[in-house]
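Good morning,

Attaching, inline, the backbone tokens for the sequence recovery test we're adding to the shared suite. The designed sequence is right after.
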């Protein structure tokens, strides 16, 4: 058996609030191998998103991760890394997409520029070259009329199209792991099915591991 790409062990996350301590995650463990999908299904409030944010080291200031918790990614415990070291991994080797793409996209910048910027942060290159990569990504995520989309703003697109832009952004640096946190919750049912099919196809073509977080009905 090959080693898992991601293995979380005994993840505990508490939040300190003015009303006391909130025990959001209590000893969660799971693992996912390269190229595999793991579906994490649970009720609203059960700690699915908090766990994903713990993996990405994107927890709120008032969060505390348990001293015995471990988040192994490709053999490294991410909880041991500095913020600078995490920046090398976040958006590069591990990407995340969220349920509401509108809140993740900057409303005042063209979507093409936003995806190009993500590429350039991790792989410095001229803007023109980055935009050519963005166009390829927009084609890959099957955005209709991809060339014209480059210069559009988020509000000029439908919810499903915006989620495709977020997926393009997440794929931009060819991550080993994609965490999709309820990626279809904010979308119409038919669009939900299209996005899930797209994620499945991309997972195969990129040989990515995917953690798919879904709410249980
Ligand atoms: N910054 C915070 N301060 C205090 N409590 C928080 C904070 N962030 C999250 N929580 C709490 O942690 C718990 C788990 O939240 P989380 O968002 O992970 O649930 P979830 O399973 O992803 O739910 P949903 O499916 O509704 O997104 C909730 O009770 C939430 O209120």
């Amino acid at each position: 058996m090959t080693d898992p790409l991601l293995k979380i062990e005994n993840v505990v996350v508490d939040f300190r609030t003015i009303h006391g301590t909130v025990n959001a995650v209590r000893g969660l463990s799971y693992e996912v191998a390269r190229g595999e999908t793991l579906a994490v299904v649970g009720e609203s409030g059960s700690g699915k998103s908090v766990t994903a944010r713990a993996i990405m080291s994107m927890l709120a200031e008032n969060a505390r991760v348990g001293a015995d918790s471990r988040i192994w990614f490709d053999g490294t415990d991410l909880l041991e890394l500095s913020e600078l070291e995490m920046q090398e991994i976040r958006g590069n080797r591990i990407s995340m997409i969220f349920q509401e793409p509108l809140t993740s996209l900057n409303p005042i910048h063209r979507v093409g520029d936003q995806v190009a910027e993500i590429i350039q942060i991790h792989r410095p290159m001229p803007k023109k070259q980055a935009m050519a990569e963005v166009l390829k990504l927009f084609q890959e995520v099957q955005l209709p009329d991809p060339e014209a989309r480059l210069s559009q703003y988020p509000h000029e697109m439908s919810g499903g199209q915006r989620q495709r832009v977020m997926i393009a952004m997440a794929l931009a640096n060819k991550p080993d792991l994609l965490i999709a946190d309820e990626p279809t919750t904010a979308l119409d049912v038919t669009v939900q099915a299209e996005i899930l099919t797209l994620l499945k196809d991309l997972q195969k073509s990129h040989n990515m591991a995917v953690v798919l977080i879904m709410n249980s009905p």
